[in-house]
Amino acid sequence: MLTIGLNHYLVLSAIVFSLGILCMVTKRNALGILIGVELVLNAANVNLVAFSRYQTGAADGHMFAVFVILLAAAEAAIGIAIFMNFYNTLQTIDVDRGDELRN
Amino acid sequence: MQYQTALALGVVVPLASFFFLALFGPRLGKPKSSYVALLAIGISCALSTYVLVNWLKLSTPERTELTASAYRFDWGTLGSMPLTVGVKLDSLTVIMYFMVTFIAFWIHFFSIGYMEGHSDEVDHVSKYHRFFTYLSLFCFSMLGLVVSSSLLFLFIFWELVGLCSYLLIGFYFDRKYASNAAIKAFITNRVGDFGFILGMALVALYLNTLDLDLAAARFAEQFHKSAEGPAVGIFANSYTLFGFSVASLMGIGLFCGAMGKSAQFPLHVWLPDAMAGPTPVSALIHAATMVAAGVYLVARIFRLLTPEAQFFIACIGCITLTITALIAIVQTDIKKVLAYSTLSQLGYMIFGMGMGAWVAALFHLMTHAFFKAMLFLGSGQVIEGCHHEQDMRKMGGLRKKMPVTCWTFFIGVLAIAGFGLPGVEIGHVKLGLGGFFSKDEILAVAYERAFNIPELKKTDAAADDAGEHADASNANMGVASPFRLASDNQPAQHAETEHSEHDAHAHGDHAQGTPQKMAIAAKLPAIPKWMFFFPIAIAYITPFYMMRCWWMTFCGKPRDHHVYDHAHESWKMFLPLVILAGGTFFSSYQMFRPLIHDAAVIATDSSTVVAIDGEAHVLAEAGGGTMIMLNHAPGKNPHDWLKMGVGFSWLIGMGFAVLVYLRGLGLADKLKRMFGPIHTALEQKLYFDHVYDAVLVGGTVTFGFVCGLFDKIVVDGIVNMTALLGKFVGVFTGRQLDMPVKRGDWGIVDAIANGLAQTMLDIGSEIRRPQSGRIRMYVMITAGSAAVALLVVLNYHRLADGLQWLMSNVGTRVLAANGS
């Protein structure tokens, strides 16, 4: 039977990370971008927990992951507040429309 | 099929329905998507009935064996602590599971009828399927919560039911009040859940497990060690905060979660607002099942409670049941009355748990779930029939228009009021409904704790002084001693045969903890007397406001003809009412109490506090284990006292309500004017919302404002000062050093400065080009460069080697070319 080791987690994390980046790059909807950011952060979390499990054996990585989750929540709150203002000024949350500072 | 498999399957089926509806719901539309959800919960209900029926046939040792051999999988490891996932299979799980699936099934059924007449559109898009999608998700989470064997999974499902509650309260999210109520419910629950997390962290830290049974065993181990010698570990005095030991804080922290979900004071403010959701949701989530999860949690962590934590719980319960019942008196919205009555009944349950009335509190939970679900569905029928009118002042006289709803509602009112005829028995069956049995038991235990125990302690102390009586913790428990274990085989003094059909098993194997239990029982602290009198007084008020609600809605003369003419009822909606009315009878008599009692033996074993059997005098039924029974002297039986004290409270309360509202609202208005300030205070819900708004919301806004001021004055000030300073320096130096000789002619410094600026401008306009303002482009560039950088770093040696090779090869060639 396949034993799951560190590498499996790292590959998973890499996949999730890439998907997150892909999501951020391709989505024009601001909320989609926020979701992409969450994916990236969670990929990092998987790494943190996996390393702490397989390298040190202590729960340090878990604690760090909890902090990341907390920060992600704060980030989402601020992000959504920004999008609300964005919507109020531009009547859309398509980020490509927010290019007023160009030139 | 194995029982645990059946239960686990019953949890997964609604989840499958949730995913199916989430994917295909919009295509199925109205009403097909509702059938999927109904089918899913129907399967769960059938499975739970199968388990329950078979479970009833098992003997107690067989049940114990099944409990011990239930699934446990390792899910992960946190540091050195394994996290297990498994099914908790015991009598409590089985009946909770049955209760949830049965009520949920009939509420799904009701919902189909209810949503027919209700708008399900938000911005002209039908959200019908969403309603049933969320309901399925809720069923999954609630059932998962019930079967979880570990605190961690209990917590995960706990959060999931919170999410479902949020989604369903805010079902009509385009209406401001609904979305506000949803947010309020969610945030208030977060406050409680924070305590839950802290409690869990303490459990993980000091007991190094999150498995319920294992944690309890380790807790008990430390406790017994502390009881024998100096206090160690979590019981030690050196670990204290606010005078509570770590052990107490653990229990209080976990209870905070229950405070949020079961809407206990001071976190009760969300539940009345949660009535903004569709009425079937109020019935299922905010009356029958989810709000009872808090009581269920306390029942599960009962073994982790210390006397201090237990006292804290009792206080909170007592305060909640009192203030919310008072507020219920003046409410005019039919759903708000029911919401406040739910709060008050939840207060009774929590209070019972705090008193140690483990069986009684859960018994009340079961009976309450049935009749409260029915009452809410009845109100849903009324609201639907009356064209979405919720104000009872505009109803009245609906008895003739909706007879079935009227009389099922009346059964609910009787059940919650504690209808019964004390002392009257037909055969061996006492005459009564729901609350008559369950509330009576809670009050009986409270009576014991407030009166009998201090008195018995006094006599014990006197006996000790006289040297006639041995230490109370002595294993030889004579008649003179106040406490006796349920496993005691002495013949019953006040044996009544009410439950004699239930087997009287002797579980000798659970009685090992006996001497320790006796020691705990001997130290059982008495409670202040007000904690007994408040619940008694409220037992008179409950029938009053429930009867008021029923009378204003269904009796008297119609007060609004528009509403009255519209009123109608349909079978799709009253069939569940009739079934649940049957369930109310069933839950009052048939099997719940014996089964809960059966669960109590294990669930309260090896705890640091005692579980008291409310029906202490029924020894025929008391199987054994380590539940404490109070062996009162003849004539001191609390039930005798309660028979006279509150036995007829339902008659008095209901009679008074009829007297007040017999001739319309005239007398009520007079009373209202008489009690002006009190009435206003109650109408304003005792100003809890105002205080929270001022302190918490106002505090946050003020803090934001202060931060804004800081930004404006200090930060901006520094920036502006720097700019001013720069300007000043520039002007000053310009005047002193660089006076132009002629107009338009630059001095040296000017030439440098302007030249630099011009260069910068040129560079800037070049750099500006890729600054398209497209955030996606930036992400791409950042990620791309990071990837390139990563590649370079990873292949550094290879690159370096390649470069070297290139250099040397090219170099030699160049050299060779030069040489030739």
Summarize this structure as a short list of keywords or feature phrases.
heterodimer, A: 103 residues, mainly alpha, B: 820 residues, two-stranded antiparallel sheet, 29 helices
Summarize the structure in words.
The complex is a heterodimer of chains A (103) and B (820). Chain A is an all-alpha fold and 103 residues long. Helices cover 77% and strands 0% of the residues of chain A. Chain A starts with 5 loop residues before the first helix and ends in a 13-residue tail after the last helix. The model of chain A has no long low-confidence stretch (mean pLDDT 87). Chain B is mainly α. Chain B has a two-stranded antiparallel ribbon. In chain B, helix 1 packs across helix 4 (128-147). The chains are: A mainly alpha (103), B mainly alpha (820). The interface between A and B is medium-sized, with 20 and 14 residues.
Give a brief description.
The complex is a heterodimer of chains A (103) and B (820). Helix content of chain A is 77%, strand content 0%. Chain A has 103 residues and is mainly α.
Radius of gyration of chain A, whole Å? 17 Å
By CATH reckoning, the class of chain A would read: Mainly Alpha
* CA distance, first residue to last residue of chain A: 60 Å
Shape of chain B: globular
CATH topology of chain A: Helix Hairpins
Work out the helicity level of chain B.
55-70%
Mean pLDDT of chain A: 87
Structural class, judged by helices and strands of chain B? Answer: mainly alpha
Residue runs with pLDDT of under 50 for 5 or more positions of chain A? none
Structural class of chain A: mainly alpha
* Average pLDDT figure of chain B: 79
- Contiguous low-pLDDT stretches of chain B (5 residues minimum) are 467-513, 616-626
Instruction: Write down the Rg of chain B.
Output: 34 Å
> How many distinct helices of chain A?
3
CATH architecture label name of chain A: Orthogonal Bundle
How many strand segments of chain B? 10
Oligomer: heterodimer
What topology, given as strand order, has the largest sheet of chain B?
1-2
Total beta strands of chain A: 0
